[in-house]
Amino acid sequence: MKLQIENQSLRVRVNEDELAQLLTERPLQASTRFTRDMTLSCTLRAVPGAAARFGGQPDAWTIDLPLDDVRAHAARLPTREGLLFELESGEGEPLELRFDVDVRDSVRHRRA
Q1: CATH number, residue 26
Q2: Where in the sequence is the domain holding 13, given as residue range(s)?
Q3: Helix or strand run (H / E) with residue 45
Q4: What letters, b where the CB count within 10 A reaches 16 and e where it falls short, cover 46-70?
Q5: pTM score, two decimals?
């Protein structure tokens, strides 16, 4: 799982194996240790429901994606278009949450 952050945009990109894990409702977990005292972890889940959610703590994020949307997206692969959600940030602009499956990995995986 890869996370990209820019201003009020958060992009989450997974490969085909990670997508398969999400589709069985098993969470993905990633962690980056920046320094001895600073680590960021993120848990990504595909869950029943109609809305994407972002929560957790400053150093331990949880991102929930609607399972039906993830399944529909998986059926369209390979594609460069991902899922887009706008989440209230509490102040100012909403957080734009993008979910993609690595298109190069999808092409390789589906040709094999």
Answers
A1: 3.30.1360
A2: 2-111
A3: strand 38-47
A4: beeeeebbbeeeeeebebbbbbebb
A5: 0.91
